[in-house]
Specification:
This protein is α+β, with helices and mostly antiparallel strands. The protein contains two helices and three strands, in the order E-E-E-H-H. Helix content is about 20%, strand content about 35%.
Length: about 100
C-alpha cells in the first residue's frame, strides 16, 4: 500500500535480494539498471513499442519490449542469469506460462 500511495521509504526496502524496475511506464526505451546494494540483481523492463522484425523472411511490425538484467557475477553464474532472462521472455510473450507454472 505504501508503494502504491507513493510513501515508500528506503528503510521499507531493506532485506531485498532482487529488484524489478519498470522504466517503461516513463517511456524508457532501453537502459542498464544498476544493482541496489546489497541486492544480487535487478531486472529493468522498458516501454513496449511497435518495431520492424524479420519473420519468415518478411519484415513485419510487432510489439517489442527490451529487458535488461544486471547481476552480481560473484553471486550468480551467467548461465543461470541468462536462463532466468529467457524464462522472463517466455512468460511475457505467453502469460499462460506463469498461470500454468510450466
Amino acid at each position: 500500500m505504501k508503494a502504491r500511495d507513493g510513501n515508500l521509504a528506503i528503510e521499507d526496502m531493506d532485506g531485498g535480494t532482487f529488484t524489478v524496475s519498470n522504466g517503461g511506464v516513463f517511456g524508457s526505451m532501453f537502459g542498464t539498471p544498476i544493482i541496489n546494494l546489497p541486492q544480487s540483481a535487478i531486472l529493468g523492463m522498458h516501454a513496449t513499442q511497435q518495431r520492424p522484425v524479420a519473420l519468415n523472411g518478411n519484415v513485419v511490425i510487432r510489439p517489442m519490449m527490451y529487458v535488461a538484467l544486471t547481476y552480481d557475477h560473484r553471486l550468480i553464474d551467467g548461465r543461470e542469469a541468462v536462463t532466468f532472462l529467457k524464462r522472463v521472455k517466455s512468460a511475457v510473450e505467453d502469460p499462460g506460462i506463469m498461470l500454468l507454472d510450466i
